[in-house]
Amino acid sequence: NAGVTQTPKFRILKIGQSMTLQCTQDMNHNYMYWYRQDPGMGLKLIYYSVGAGITDKGEVPNGYNVSRSTTEDFPLRLELAAPSQTSVYFCASSYGRGNYGYTFGSGTRLTVV
Amino acid sequence: TQLLEQSPQFLSIQEGENLTVYCNSSSVFSSLQWYRQEPGEGPVLLVTVVTGGEVKKLKRLTFQFGDARKDSSLHITAAQPGDTGLYLCAGAPSKAAGNKLTFGGGTRVLVKP
User: Fold this and answer.
1) Could you read off the pLDDT of A77-105 as tens digits, one per residue?
2) Is there a contact between A96 and B99 if contact means CB atoms under 8 Å apart?
3) In this structure, how many other beta carbons lie within 10 angstroms of the beta carbon of residue B58?
4) Is the N or the C terminus of chain A less surrounded, counting Cβ atoms within 10 Å?
5) pLDDT digit string (tens) for B14-47?
6) In this predicted model, what pLDDT tens digit does every residue of A24-56 receive, in sequence order?
7) Is A31 close to B95, i.e. CB distance below 8 A?
8) How far, in Å, CA of A68 to CA of A49, rounded?
9) DSSP structure class, residue A30
């Protein structure tokens, strides 16, 4: 059982480049999330989705875009990368409404130079 | 924005000692979750507490949810080096919020053999 899979694990981008962080889950979870974690800090929500075709902004959405065409996949797009986007990005999923815990992927470490 | 403050930020103890991590907010949460994160990995769910005053035990770990559902604590008895990691608390503000979690800043625990 793979859970939540994120690719790539590491990436270095130059300022102004774009990239897509991939996230897929095989648990048939309706809800999916993207968080970023800066050094010594907790997790901040970028975007989330409550089902295929539905996405919404979180706390720090600027500079990012998402799509949710299937239940399994929730890619995060970075347009015009900036040094402030250097961070570790985590994708997570949960079963749905209520007090369900999250299952996290192992993260993507992104450096923008 | 509902904030969760964790204390202390860092804790270094010897194997066999006890420790307590605190998670506080001025806001009420419908539930509170605790996660442990190891280097290079995503957070892993330890427990969810839902009822005010609830106490849950997981082997040597004891979790408590405050009566007013605004705070929580994690107590580890006879800590072992395997307990080393970043402990994160996360609150669910309401059941209608897309199950979005607000994370605390984390407590880094180091248990020395």
Assistant:
1) 999 999 999 999 999 999 877 678 999 99
2) yes
3) 12
4) N
5) 999 999 999 999 989 988 999 999 999 999 999 9
6) 999 999 999 999 999 877 899 999 999 999 999
7) no
8) 7
9) S
B42/A33 CB distance under 8 A: no
Of the pLDDT bands very low, low, confident and very high (cuts 50, 70, 90), residue B96 is low
Specify the residue for token string 């949960």.
A94
Distances from the Cα of A77 to the Cαs of A3, A6, A34, B53, B74, in angstroms?
Answer: 21, 13, 11, 42, 36
| Among B102, B66, B61, residue whose Cα is nearest residue B85 | B61
HEC-encoded secondary structure of B61-83? EEEEECCCCCEEEEEECCCCHHH
Are A2 and A93 within 8 A, CB to CB? Answer: no
Residue B76 CB contacts under 8 Å (≥ 6 apart), including other chains: B18, B19, B20, B60, B61, B62, B83, B109
